[in-house]
Amino acid sequence: xxxxxxxxxxxxxxxxxxxxxxxxxxxxxxxxxxxxxxxxxxxxxxxxxxxxxxxxxxxxxxxxxxxxxxxxxxxxxxxxxxxxxxxxxxxxxxxxxxxxxxxxxxxxxxxxxxxxxxxxxxxxxxxxxxxxxxxxxxxxxxxxxxxxxxxxxxxxxxxxxxxxxxxxxxxxxxxxxxxxxxxxxxxxxxxxxxxxxxxxxxxxxxxxxxxxxxxxxxxxxxxxxxxxxxxxxxxxxxxxxxxxxxxxxxxxxxxxxxxxxxxxxxxxxxxxxxxxxxxxxxxxxxxxxxxxxxxxxxxxxxxxxxxxxxxxxxxxxxxxxx
Length: 322
What we know:
Radius of gyration: 19 Å
Helix content: 10-25%
Number of helices: 8
Shape: globular
Oligomer: single chain
Number of domains: 1
CATH architecture: Alpha-Beta Complex
Distance between the termini: 24 Å
């Protein structure tokens, strides 16, 4: 069972990331056995790419730091849900080399005073990048701890001055069959779409991510720009975003459209609500080597972030609005 040493993760925002920390992580990972996940470092085209350091911006250590062992980088880069590149967990790392993350633009539309098409770097440039270590929990009952790099979504949203009619924020993933071979099969109603209530989007935990482990995002992890909502199941954290729209009504979401009896709009991590085909009461922690399949821990409400987000849902029936 996870034991949290701190009640809050607030720390000084002046602390810079130590480059040696990442070098040491890579040395440690090189000596670890990852056979339990069927992974080995550097064996796929996407994972063998030249490392793209985030040199364009200074990065500080952000205010949220999960006090648990970080999942090895090859595991985070090699075990993904990104159906646009295949339905098996290792497919994205094998196939995402086709994605061209630069140049990249994002269309801002809907109920906002400032809309249009923006280069993704321009969305990030006014803000200092932060490293935040978040737990990442997937609906299939596995979890990771990842050092993401990005900026708070609320800072990006504020630049566009949403109007009072903007009650929700909708997101859309790139849909390009030439770059994404998984789109050739109707696994979902493409393009992939997701959404958040405005107060969820403006919560300080919600993050626009452009990197991890001190480098730019690998293609299979959602390059060049994605969202992380750490108290929700992983499929809410939409990847490779090309559209952000401010809406008055609740937007459709891909998994809710596909299987509404299994996936709700809110998708908060709730161990008391079982998926129709498996329990959500515990999870498998990835990255523990050959015996990691036996490393299960009790799932925490809101993925361990209840102190920060439970108030967003006061008075709601979280079994009904799952």
